[in-house]
Amino acid sequence: MKTRKRRAMSGFTLIELMIGFGMVLAASILVFAYAANTKVSASVHHESSAINMGVSRIRNMFPGRDYSAISNTVLANAKVFTASRVSGASVSNSWGGAIVVAPATLNGIANIAFSWSLNRVPQAECFDLVASVDPIFHEIQVNGVVVKTFPGSLDRTTLAGSTACGASDSNAVTLISL
Fold it and tell me: How many domains does the chain have?
């Protein structure tokens, strides 16, 4: 009597397919999370670089620290802002909100400082943006909440709280520098 050899079955079992699908799904989630985080980091880096460069140029333009004549128009004419951010007398930030630079009062002395105000700062970027530009500013407010006073350091607890970088994507940040 002849014995028949059984042909080996090929293919995958249902369990093997489910494990493979789960691994692909987990990898996809990690890739999308990383991509979203990278986008946030890029926006913050781009905006903080523009702010740092702008502050440096402003300080060179006003060596006597009398900022009474500072305005968006003066700064746009001096090419402090990149051309892509300027539209007429308006200047925009990375998130499409306005940037307004104006004379400011610090410790009761008018025009000794200037403010750099941004609006429409998304919640996801608010904390990182403020933390990244903190060293060059003397006073910082987010949505009207003072998170750094002069002299003093950044109050990260208040900044992270719901009253500062709130739950909306329309935060207003005011940075004041000498």
Answer: 1
